Amino acid sequence: MMATRDKLIDGAIAAIREHGIAGVSARTIAATAGVNQALVFYHFGSVDDLLAEACRSVTAARVAVYRARLADVSSLRELLDIGRTLHRQEQAEGNLAVLAQLLAGAQNDPTLAESTAAALRIWTVEIESVLHRLLDGSPIAPVVDPAGLARAVSAAFIGLELYDGVDPEGASAAFDALERLAVLVEVIDDLGPLARRAARAKLRHLT
Amino acid sequence: MMATRDKLIDGAIAAIREHGIAGVSARTIAATAGVNQALVFYHFGSVDDLLAEACRSVTAARVAVYRARLADVSSLRELLDIGRTLHRQEQAEGNLAVLAQLLAGAQNDPTLAESTAAALRIWTVEIESVLHRLLDGSPIAPVVDPAGLARAVSAAFIGLELYDGVDPEGASAAFDALERLAVLVEVIDDLGPLARRAARAKLRHLT
DNA sequence: GTCTATAACGAGATAGAC
DNA sequence: GTCTATCTCGTTATAGAC
Questions:
Q1: Rounded to an integer, what distance in angstroms lies between the CA atom of residue A27 and that of residue A32?
Q2: Where are the extended beta strands (E) located within chain A?
Q3: Using a CB-CB distance cutoff of 8 angstroms, which residues of chain A are in contact with residue B207?
Q4: Taking residues A67-92, what's their average pLDDT?
Q5: What is the pTM assigned to this prediction?
Q6: Å between A42 CA and C10 C1'?
Q7: Strands (E), chain B
């Protein structure tokens, strides 16, 4: 038997998945959770605060699944494999959709903005540490910024999820294109000092 | 003097910008437009249909601004420059935010899904044709897919916009990281057949 | 902690006067 | 084409019985 508080958190996540951020309410959440509507306010004070808590909850749970696997990664290729698996899995379970909806709602809601920012930070911190480990010794280290790249990956996952909702084939092609770009990075990585010097020169011109 | 129909379309866009997709209603739109609430239903039938029309309207207007400029692009560097300008401009005017909110709403709304898919198609068709023109002769042509890449760019802009709403510094770092990756593509492009062969071999392993 | 009942309000949508 | 008025329903939130 599950505590009402937890039922409401799970109900909130399911309701966002099903109705989107524009369709969630204390009533839809309570109905999904199978509890009385008034309990939303008793346990969380407001719908907003429940959504914020749900955001924290789902993020902690999902990151925990991948933390160990990410810690074992020792090559860019392996990282790409995990990235593909993570994308497929989280997309299928609807966790990416939930995060995307919360993030959309956060644009006009300070409470949600805080919790989604924290959620994204938890993901990017994890990705960033792997990228640091993999890239610090590589010849392209001076060219790539692990912190920025980790955030870019997170943003891309969100954007691709929303794209997928209205054009699945297009989103799939986009994901493949990004994967190939990542392989290009590997190619430069293998070419060694020659490419490294060329890349550095190019980047100097940019700034 | 502006026609009421157009006032409502502009009002809808402004209301999405201000309140997000979860906060728009016939009342908020009409108030923003400065017209009576009942006119939403007289002119468009439903709020949904007004939003769909607003989506088409804002997309057509914004793409028109860049179409000529994109047609003149003759190098990857120039394309990156326009991309940066476009991102800065559309972000500042809130047009990216509007598209992101519409896309989020589209995930659970077939009417909106159709119009946002059309909007994204209009953008990607434009980008794709430029990429084809620039990359078809290049040594990395067999490695990159212009259609997929154009969609990836669109998705990334959406994702970065949402990210920016909750963490502006992080989003800025992410954008910079992606720009540097694009420069890496240029580097490979310049290295010629050597890198081309290496990239092809890598990609064969991937599939 | 959980329920019913209800207050107070905003939502989509329509009817009918002008 | 535009307005007022209104219907019906869903919304957040609270009071109070159990």
A1: 9
A2: none
A3: none
A4: 96
A5: 0.97
A6: 23
A7: none
